[in-house]
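Example complex used in Figure S2.
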Amino acid sequence: MREHRVITPSVLYFGTPVAVVSSVNPDGSTNIAPISSYWALDDLIVIGLGATGRTATNLRERPDLVVNLFEDGAWEEIDALGRYTGANPVPTGKRADCRFVADKFAAVGWTPVASSSGGPVRIAEASVHIEAVVTAIDEVADLLVVRARAGTVHADEEIVVAGTSHIDPQRWRPLIYSFRHYFGLGERRGVAPHADVR
Ligand SMILES: Cc1cc2nc3c(=O)[nH]c(=O)nc-3n(C[C@H](O)[C@H](O)[C@H](O)COP(=O)(O)O)c2cc1C
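Predicted assembly (198 residues):
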């Protein structure tokens, strides 16, 4: 029998994949920021965002975004990116080591690629790019719950089953953020009966 006790954890980041959100700055350039508090169902994407960051301001004012999905090798760039904000001055409440960076692509050495929508640019180093448009934003205390509709999806050929639109789960190696540690996936444990790829 397991013995449980009451704890008061500082975060409930129980292990979700990491994405980097592209959004449009007031001058038309693209801001990028890592997220892990998000989920997708059909073409609905829901994202939890701190309300004071550049991404939050951008998405309130300009609804186009790209959700860039990264694989586990990119954790160091992602972690560095989490310490940069496109908001100037740095909002109060950000991490003490957070600093303003105007060109985050240059800061982490990534390559911008134009989006089909003409919205914010995609990140060439990401495996999957989901272009999306914000449909609603709910304010919950100092957080935003952003709802978006997914549009065009771009995927690295290396992880797509040839001749299909299916991502091969055996080749897609997402970066997982769990209680502020970065992981890759372990071994496959099973396959759902309705999986697209066997
Ligand atoms: C792995 C990782 C996951 C993160 N997840 C989120 C998240 O889900 N929501 C959020 O608001 N911030 C998240 N952050 C923090 C933001 O990336 C950080 O506050 C960044 O400065 C935001 O940049 P911006 O102000 O330019 O939008 C995460 C950071 C890292 C490194």
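Residues 18, 31, 33-37, 48-50, 53-55, 78-79, 82, 84-87, 98, 177 surround flavin mononucleotide (CB under 6 Å). The CA atoms of residues 161 and 168 lie 6 Å apart.
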